[in-house]
Write a structure and sequence with these properties.
The chain has about 200 residues and is an alpha/beta fold. The chain contains eight helices and nine strands.
Length: about 200
């Protein structure tokens, strides 16, 4: 069985968090161009390379950003409370998932170095232990810093829906350390928050 077929059978969904206003960057990171496409388009294509069960949470300038991905088979969720923090976008995305979904992978719109191979590695680890939480670390020998891509099994969906604030799902990861499987993907920790990081991104392509 291929990884793709296994993922379909196990009913994995992906949620792309893309609701922020990019205040530190000074422009909408969702629309920043990378190799001829916006980051928003790139991450949607990335998610769709693994599963058709893809959701994108928008917030600031939602209508404008929705037009950018209007031709893609993406389930768009608009978070009316996006200004209250990332946790509200996670909650909105998970709340929108249909009941048949067994687990959800969360990625960020500005993780511009993630590749299809990276998210497939995360998904394969989940397939081996579908009741575990799969999280990414910069360095597997020091897993104190972990983050997305993260896969959460259905047994924590109700807690994800109740999240609030700007710390994302860190409280869930801290609460269930014994359920964690960690995978090392340094590229997942390259993001886009400042003009300096934008300059680095543009210099790299």
């Amino acid at each position: 069985m291929s990884t793709e077929q296994a993922i379909i059978n196990k009913k994995l969904s992906i949620i792309i968090l893309a609701a922020g206003a990019s205040s530190r960057l000074g422009q909408a990171k969702q629309l920043v161009n990378l190799n001829g496409q916006s980051l928003l388009e790139r991450q949607c294509n990335l998610a769709l390379s693994l599963t058709e069960n893809t959701y994108c949470v928008l917030g600031g300038d939602a209508n404008k950003h929705k037009q950018v991905i209007g031709g893609k088979p993406i389930n768009v969720v608009v978070n009316d409370y996006w200004q209250q923090g990332m946790a509200t976008s996670i909650a909105a995305g998970v709340k929108a998932l249909p009941s048949h979904i067994d687990a959800v992978m969360i990625i960020l719109v500005d993780q511009w170095q993630l590749t299809p191979e990276h998210i497939e590695r995360v998904a394969k680890l989940w397939l081996q232990s579908p009741e575990m939480i799969i999280a990414t670390s910069h360095n597997a020998s020091n897993a104190k810093k972990i983050g997305p891509p993260v896969i959460f099994p259905k047994r924590v969906f109700s807690q994800l829906i109740e999240l609030k604030g700007d710390s994302g799902a860190k409280s869930i990861l801290a609460k269930y350390r014994e359920w964690l499987n960690i995978i090392e993907i340094p590229e997942a920790f390259v993001d886009l928050d400042t003009p300096e990081q934008l300059a680095v991104m543009r210099a790299s392509v």
